[in-house]
């Protein structure tokens, strides 16, 4: 049984004064994610990938279709506060803007301590601090340099590492990373991508990586789904997508990938 299964997912927005016009943001999307697998949803803005992620995170209700996590339908079976806490404990999101994802007035130590309070994790203060230090070290940060600082005192790359460190602290089974490298310097992107590999290797965490950049998806993924106008138009392993793209939209995305990168793939 897959960890996550998305079946026939559709999201329709009604617009206009009387709601007579409709926009189909996601149309009949189906895929699954296994334990420890990294799956990328790739497409331009408006392709439906972020809407799909918001539905999986249970932030947006679908018009049709279902999302099943560990055998439980997230809309039909998860109704109580306890159920939802269980779900969000096991399914985390990392978003593209590290500048607005953390309260700018809180010290980094307090940002992490709130995680324990949110999920009612009962540890003594010494154990909590030890776990926070280990999480920061997991993403290459020195605890003494960041714990008493506030987000506005850190670079974008460091803030994004803080967000990923929170994942190492919570140890969820699934992470949805929505354009996690788009607002940080290009020189730091490889390091952030390597952290998702580390999540998978050390915690067996599955990742849904959402990006417009097919090159990044190829680097980090086990499997890639190409989304276009709300639909999955192509699916395959990175080598297959890069060497033998079947859909015209995939070929257009490939044109934006550096030639050196695509040439390397075709030679392997």
From TrEMBL:
Record-linked Pfam families: ABC_tran, oligo_HPY
UniProt xrefs under Gene3D superfamilies: P-loop containing nucleotide triphosphate hydrolases
Record domain ABC transporter: where: 4-254
InterPro entries the record matches: AAA+_ATPase (IPR003593), ABC_transporter-like_ATP-bd (IPR003439), ABC_transporter-like_CS (IPR017871), Oligopep_ABC_C (IPR013563), P-loop_NTPase (IPR027417)
PROSITE patterns assigned: ABC_TRANSPORTER_1 (PS00211), ABC_TRANSPORTER_2 (PS50893)
SUPFAM superfamilies on file: P-loop containing nucleoside triphosphate hydrolases (SSF52540)
Xref: SMART domains: AAA
Keywords from the named record: ATP-binding, Nucleotide-binding, Transport
GO terms classed as biological process: peptide transport
Name of the protein in question: ABC transporter ATP-binding protein
GO MF entries: ATP binding; ATP hydrolysis activity
């Amino acid at each position: 049984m897959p960890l996550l299964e998305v079946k026939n997912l559709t999201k329709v927005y009604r617009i206009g004064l009387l709601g007579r016009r409709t926009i189909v943001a996601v149309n009949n999307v189906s895929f699954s994610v296994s334990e420890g697998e990294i799956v990328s949803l790739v497409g331009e803005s408006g392709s439906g990938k972020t809407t799909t992620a918001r539905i999986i995170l249970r932030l947006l209700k679908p018009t049709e279709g279902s999302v099943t996590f560990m055998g439980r339908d997230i809309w039909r079976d998860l109704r109580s506060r306890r159920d939802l806490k269980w779900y969000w404990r096991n399914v985390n999101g990392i978003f593209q803007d590290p500048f607005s994802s953390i309260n700018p007035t809180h010290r980094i130590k307090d940002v992490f301590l709130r995680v324990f309070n949110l999920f009612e994790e009962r540890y003594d203060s010494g154990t909590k601090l030890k776990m926070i230090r280990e999480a920061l070290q997991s993403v290459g940060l020195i605890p003494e340099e960041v714990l008493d600082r506030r987000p506005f005192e850190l670079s974008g790359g460091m803030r994004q590492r803080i967000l990923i460190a929170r994942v190492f602290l919570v140890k969820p089974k699934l992470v949805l990373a929505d354009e996690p490298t788009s607002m940080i310097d290009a020189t730091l992107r490889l390091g952030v991508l390597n952290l998702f590999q580390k999540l998978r290797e050390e915690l067996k965490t599955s990742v849904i990586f959402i990006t417009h950049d097919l090159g990044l998806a190829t680097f980090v993924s086990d499997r890639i789904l190409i989304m276009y106008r709300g639909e999955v138009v192509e699916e395959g392993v990175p080598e297959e997508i890069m060497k033998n793209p079947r859909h015209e939209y995939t070929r257009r995305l490939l044109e934006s990938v550096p030639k050196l990168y695509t040439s390397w793939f075709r030679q392997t």
